[in-house]
Write a structure and sequence with these properties.
Blueprint: H1 3-7, E1 15-20, H2 24-39, E2 43-44, E3 55-60, H3 67-83, E4 89-94, H4 95-100, H5 102-107, E5 113-115, H6 123-133, E6 137-139, E7 160-164, E8 166-167, H7 178-182, E9 186-187, H8 190-202, E10 207-211, H9 227-235, E11 243-247, H10 256-264, E12 271-273, H11 281-286, H12 293-306, E13 311-318, H13 325-338, E14 342-347, H14 365-388, E15 394-399, H15 407-410, E16 412-416, E17 422-426, E18 437-441, E19 444-445, E20 450-452, E21 458-460, H16 463-477
Parallel strand pairs: 1-2, 1-3, 3-4, 4-5, 5-6, 7-10, 10-11, 12-13, 13-14, 17-20
Antiparallel strand pairs: 8-9, 15-16, 15-18, 16-17, 18-21, 19-20
Helix pairs in contact: 9-10, 13-14
């Protein structure tokens, strides 16, 4: 079926809304779901539609204990809306759909489609089948049918893009259910990855984020332990690609050749988000993490030796079953030693279906909360101290969209430094677009952002800015109801502002 045929399969101006929960993999999958629906003739509902669309898709996450309650609560709020809107359809996909399958339709019989993490490409067909047969369609594939990057994609950003290099995970961390839902790791061919990046650059993209559940294990399919470092170096040879990032790596696979590739490839940014999870060796063992405190701190030391200005962030779980006060103090020790620019700290919550959920030694909520507050206070202090070191530096920022919530009131714009720090800067007299690059001097530091209060030193208009301008001009010319703007949920905001994995499971 051609795109033209598919577009005739739905009524003109039939609208859709995709609601995304969880990690960057889900965000990128939602871009594909949007691309599939638009390829089938649907148009995006206004961002304030709040369920007032012909098709509402939930792309779910299953790594939190209350994930199902959140889903069913949202589905319940849509039930009366659907009863008043003939032809409205509701679809549920993602990790929770992969896990719960028929349970979703049993608890919410007004749902029309349930699909899993391995068959997102079937959504338009399943919607049509549900419409014709007038009954719910539940289709969960047990293994990947096709690498999702072959599907149509509606990118949320004109100047930055996710690029998946693998799906699935071969680890067996006791707190994580992702491998059971996304399957074993499957790598893409490097040639396909580079071809996608070159095509994106041709469209005006200047920053890409390589994405994988365990991104630096890339190459395990073919037994090449240096495949990831080779891929980074290959990205450095793509003309017009200004910034390369990746998330999230695993300390087990963080080898010296990766550090060398980062340091020696100019467009690979001096930024690293590497989950710690715990600083205690006994807890790391209970988590089935394949490294220990010395190994983690050794990686940090090597990264800083190769890239002194690198910004390093992490994920930490507080209150894992069996965690003693001494175990927690070991985590605090690593935080003091590593001096992370940011840390996403999670209070342990049971993931149904994981070994940790039934372990002895579950920590009382009040103890977990008290430790969490201590850790957060320590990291806040370190983040502020590390940001203060940036005052007086001259930095090149890629202008961002939607990251400065107060920019309108303060007459500022926002951008990302090479190390991913968020910087709010004085709006220059000349026109500056998202994707353009400005040079500024940092004048003030807060724990989670920097300010450049003086005049902008230089403005460099870019092809990425051109792409943003073209996209918004095309959006303005579209009929009402078609949204081609850049809602911030989908733009791959560099870490550490966006959560590391969204689930702390890397």
């Amino acid at each position: 079926m051609t795109s033209s045929d598919r577009s005739q399969a739905v009524d003109v101006n039939r609208t859709y809304e995709v609601r995304t929960y969880g990690c960057q993999m889900n965000v990128h999958d939602s871009e594909r779901l949007s691309g599939l629906l638009e390829d089938a003739g649907y148009v995006r509902a206004p961002k304030d539609a709040d369920g007032d669309a012909d098709v509402v898709v939930f792309n779910t996450c299953a790594v939190r204990e209350n994930a199902d309650n959140r889903l069913y609560g949202n589905l319940g709020r849509l039930a009366p809306m659907k009863s008043k809107r003939p032809g409205m359809q509701i679809a549920v996909g993602g990790c929770l759909a992969q896990k719960d399958r028929d349970t979703i339709v049993e608890k919410a019989p007004w749902v029309d489609v349930v699909f899993g993490t391995h068959n997102i490409g079937k959504l338009p067909v399943l919607l049509e089948r549900a419409r014709v047969q007038e009954e719910a369609q539940v289709e969960i594939a047990e293994s990947l049918e096709a690498f999702p990057s072959t599907l149509p994609t509606r990118r949320e950003s004109a100047y930055a893009a996710w690029v998946s290099i693998s799906v699935g995970c071969n680890n067996t961390c006791t707190f994580c259910i992702v491998p059971a839902l996304r399957g074993k790791e499957k790598d893409r061919r490097s040639g396909d990855i580079l071809a996608e990046i070159e095509a994106l650059v041709g469209e005006g993209v200047s920053e890409i984020t390589l994405l994988g559940q365990n991104v630096n294990a890339y190459g395990s399919d073919i037994g090449d332990r240096e495949a990831f470092s080779k891929l980074l170096r290959a990205c450095g040879r793509i003309e017009g690609l200004e910034r390369v990032r990746f998330t999230s790596p695993h300390p087990r696979d963080f080898t010296d050749d990766v550090i060398a590739a980062m340091a020696e490839t100019p467009n690979v940014m001096p930024q690293l988000h590497m989950p710690l999870q715990s600083g205690s060796d006994p807890i790391l063992k209970a988590m089935r993490r394949s490294y220990r405190q010395d190994r983690f701190l050794g990686i940090i030391e090597k990264v800083r030796a190769a890239m002194p200005d690198a910004a390093i962030s992490t994920d930490i779980i507080v209150g894992f079953p069996g965690e003693t006060e001494e175990d927690f103090e070991q985590t605090m020790h690593v935080v003091r030693e590593a001096r992370f620019t940011g840390a996403f700290t999670f209070q342990y919550s049971k993931r149904p279906g994981t070994p940790a959920a039934t372990m002895e030694g579950q920590i009382p909520k009040e103890v977990v909360q008290e430790r969490y507050m201590r850790l957060s206070a320590l990291q806040e202090e370190i983040s502020w101290d590390e940001n203060k070191k940036q005052v007086g530096r001259t930095l090149e920022l890629m202008v961002a969209e939607g990251e400065g919530r107060k920019d309108g009131a303060t007459h500022r714009l926002s951008g990302r430094a090479p190390d991913s720090r968020l910087v709010h800067f004085t709006k220059p007299d000349v026109d500056v677009r998202p994707g353009d690059v400005v040079t500024v001097e940092i004048t003030y530091a807060a724990p989670h952002h920097l300010l450049a209060e003086g005049a902008v030193l230089n403005v460099r208009r870019t092809r990425a800015g051109d792409a943003w301008e073209k996209r918004n001009a095309e959006a303005a010319a579209k009929p009402a109801g078609v949204m081609l703007g850049l809602p911030k949920i989908g733009a791959p905001a560099p870490l550490p502002v966006a959560a590391g994995s969204g689930c702390g499971c890397d």
